[in-house]
Design goal:
five-stranded mixed beta sheet, Ig_E-set, about 30% strand, about 10% helix, Mopterin_OxRdtase_euk, binds molybdenum atom, binds the ligand Nc1nc2c(c(=O)[nH]1)N[C@H]1C(S)=C(S)[C@@H](COP(=O)(O)O)O[C@H]1N2, MoCF_OxRdtse_dimer, Immunoglobulin-like, mainly beta, five-stranded antiparallel beta sheet
């Protein structure tokens, strides 16, 4: 009979950190045991989120921000949306974390410890926009199944790690490589260990970009548990589903990666526009790559009331996937005329850009402020819901807020 193993020191330390105190009889805990204190039903406490965050689902945990919560230039953990497809891994042993590279386009499998990644490769820090492909889904009609995100499934934190390209080169991939696919430690909701909750990836060209990271830090500290501790793939500007959390494997593929949620209709949109409600065959659906141009007014909160003044400085962020945002405009007359906002350059490629504008309202009354970004290819955000698609992806319609001048 095989004796059950006790928890490793590294896992114990991680659990103690998550609990905020020492586990006094920790040496008696067996591997796989789930501590009651970490099954906190209060997700705000558990994930250290602001109470104004909105829970969309608890199995798995999905939580979004509201526009006004995203006002920071660099998104702090407490305002960062959570999108999980499975169960967050239990008992993470960061001290012994490993990542294995395999796949058809690799001569021999290669494993690196997290320690090795940190010591062997140069480290880089970038601020990177991560937006869920389904952000804005709640507006689709006919409705699309899935988390009913409004506007808050986007973040732009600072990520530190090593370049995936440096590690890929070290691992020595073959010339026929076309795609990478990630593997992770989270578990399928069914409990079936042979099923991966999600295993997506990106073409080699994206994998080899300078900003594509194997990240082990977020905003200067450990990556929070819900966001992929202790190692995460980050591919900014693409649907955030390409950025695998709790990363423990990369397959270098000689074909488009065919992991969970890469095939069928997942994270795909009709290659050609379709009428709302139309059925689309899987083979007519194309993989989402760069995310479309979009913006968010983060100050003031919609419903603001100006008392004894008629001037207001609005601010927010705009982003455009792989592209840059070229101009940012606002309208207070329901889109009949547009004024230019001040727009900053991004901190680095694939980071969102801050905008602001000081608006003078002509008289007392009700207004809406509409914001519209234009990308470097001159594509503008649509005023209303863009191309309907069966799974409700890529809603980049203009953000609007209500303002009363009294
Ligand atoms: N291992 C793993 N990685 C994952 C997911 C997941 O469920 N498991 N969800 C993906 C999806 S769909 C999104 S939108 C982002 C969400 O990242 P966040 O929770 O850090 O905001 O993580 C992606 N990476
Ligand atoms: Mo997502």
């Amino acid at each position: 009979m095989q004796r059950r193993k006790f928890l490793k020191k590294g896992s114990l330390l991680t659990l103690a950190t998550a609990l905020g105190t020492e586990i006094v009889f920790g040496k008696n805990i067996r591997e796989g045991y789930q501590l009651l204190g970490l099954q906190d039903p209060d997700p705000f406490k558990l994930f250290q989120k602001d109470p104004q965050m909105v829970v969309l689902n608890d199995k798995p945990w999905n939580m979004e921000a509201q526009a006004h919560l995203l006002d920071d230039r660099v998104t702090p953990n407490r305002f960062m949306f959570i999108r999980n497809n499975g169960k967050i891994p239990a008992n993470i042993d960061a001290a012994n974390w490993k990542i294995t590279f395999d796949g058809e386009s690799l001569e021999t499998k290669k494993t690196y410890s997290l320690k090795e990644l940190k010591s062997k490769f140069k480290q880089y820090t970038y601020q990177l926009t991560l937006e869920c492909g389904g952000n804005g889904r709640s507006e689709f009609n006919p409705p699309a199944k899935g988390n009913q995100w409004t506007v808050g499934a986007v973040s732009c934190a600072t990520w530190t790690g090593v370049r995936l390209k440096d590690v890929l080169e070290d691992a020595g991939y073959k010339k026929d490589a076309v795609y990478i696919g990630y593997h992770a430690a989270d578990t399928h909701l069914s409990g079936d260990p042979s099923k991966e909750p999600i295993s997506r990836g990106v073409p080699m060209a994206k994998a080899l970009q300078d900003e594509t990271l194997l990240a082990f830090k977020m905003n200067g500290g450990d990556i929070p548990l819900a966001h992929g501790y202790p190692l995460r793939l980050i591919a900014g500007g693409w649907p955030a589903s390409a950025s695998g959390k709790w990363l423990n494997g990369i397959s270098i593929r000689n074909k488009i990666h065919d992991g969970t949620k890469m095939t069928g209709s997942a994270y795909r949109v009709p290659c050609e526009a379709v009428a709302p409600g139309e059925k689309v065959k899987d083979e007519d659906m194309c993989i989402i790559e760069s995310m479309p141009v979009k913006s968010l007014i983060t100050y003031p909160k919609s419903g603001a009331v100006l008392k004894n003044k008629n001037s207001l400085t609005i601010r927010g962020h705009a982003w455009a996937g792989e592209l840059q945002v070229k101009t940012m405009e606002y309208s207070i007359d329901f889109g009949s005329s547009w004024q230019t906002c001040r727009l900053e350059v991004p901190k680095n490629r694939l980071a969102w850009q801050h905008f602001s504008a000081t608006i003078s309202f002509p008289k007392k009354g009700y207004y809406e402020v509409w914001a519209r970004a234009t990308d470097s290819n001159n594509l503008k955000q649509p005023m209303i819901l863009p191309g309907w698609n069966p799974k409700g992806y890529l809603n980049n319609a203009c953000h609007r807020i209500a303002v009363k001048v009294s």
